[in-house]
Design brief:
CATH superfamily: Metallo-dependent phosphatases
Distance between the termini: 41 Å
CATH architecture: 4-Layer Sandwich
Number of strands: 13
CATH topology: Purple Acid Phosphatase, chain A, domain 2
Structural class: alpha/beta
Helix content: 10-25%
Bound molecules: fe (ii) ion
Shape: globular
CATH class: Alpha Beta
Radius of gyration: 17 Å
Strand content: 25-35%
Largest sheet: 7 strands, mixed
Number of domains: 1
Amino acid sequence: MQNSSLQILFLGDIVSKLGRQGVKRFLHDHRDSYDLVIANCENTSGGKGISKNHAMDLKETGIDVFTSGNHIWRKKDIIPHLEEYSVLRPLNYPPGTPGYGSKVLTLEDGTTIGVINIMGRIFMGNPTDCPFRSIETEIQRIKEKTSLIFVDFHAETTSEKKAMGFFLDGKVSCMVGTHTHIQTHDSQILPKGTGYITDAGMCGAYQSVLGVKSEIIIDTYLTQRPALFEIETKGPTIVSYVHVDIDIESAKTTYIRGDYALYED
Ligand SMILES: [Fe+2]
Ligand SMILES: [Fe+2]
């Protein structure tokens, strides 16, 4: 029988080994509470990109779809296998870019949901197509199959994300932001029923600067010279996530909350 609501777990950017271990532990304990698990994987392998092996390994823990971002191109071996392991890359790259920016899934109970990954243009490096115009076209395409749509908007600035949230309100079921690695305390339901949070945060080293060893980042600020970023491998692990309930009939969010688990050892 089809459920009346969908319980969705979204995991923030998985950063390297601590992130992978934390996510595995979290899913071991909580996977059964959710109908769908989506995770941003752009920092999974060595902090940049996701390798084919790590995608395979994490998929087995119960992640249904991976979203990503600007770092997705850093591990080359995943590129021919993006579709095979349900790894999305941002939708608004130029035509001809490998992979897909969206996926429509049919869950165990027969419910169909579309997941879209799209990237902002402010302070994000190489310019991409307009995320607002691109996503509008993609939503129309997906709506022919399902009215349930979940969006990961990978962007730097809070203003671009908030604007996208209101732009999508009533058009999609939920939008979560990613990329900044710090969870924002603003999970909310927008006026027309779209669930929203500016950033989901990250899964990785708790005592770090966005996953990187703090002393290296402090040094780059003090010296104004570039340095090789080394991922923090010690200390507690944070698993930042967003729990979303979507009413299947109305396709609206009925509950959204950003939260985290902290593993001390
Ligand atoms: Fe990231
Ligand atoms: Fe990013």
